[in-house]
Amino acid sequence: MELNKLVSAMRKCVTDYKMIKDGDKIAVGLSGGKDSVALLTMLSYYQKFSPEKFELIAITVDLSFTGAKTDYSPMQKLCDELGVPFFLEKTEIGEIVFDVRKEKSPCSLCSKMRKGALYSACVREGCNKVALGHHRDDMIDTFLLSLFYEGRLSTFAPKSFLDKTGLTLIRPMLYIEERNLLSYAKTLPVVESNCPANKHTKREDIKLTVKEIADKIPNVREMMFTALTHPERYNLFDKYKNEIDKI
Question: What is the pTM of this model?
Answer without folding.
Answer: 0.91
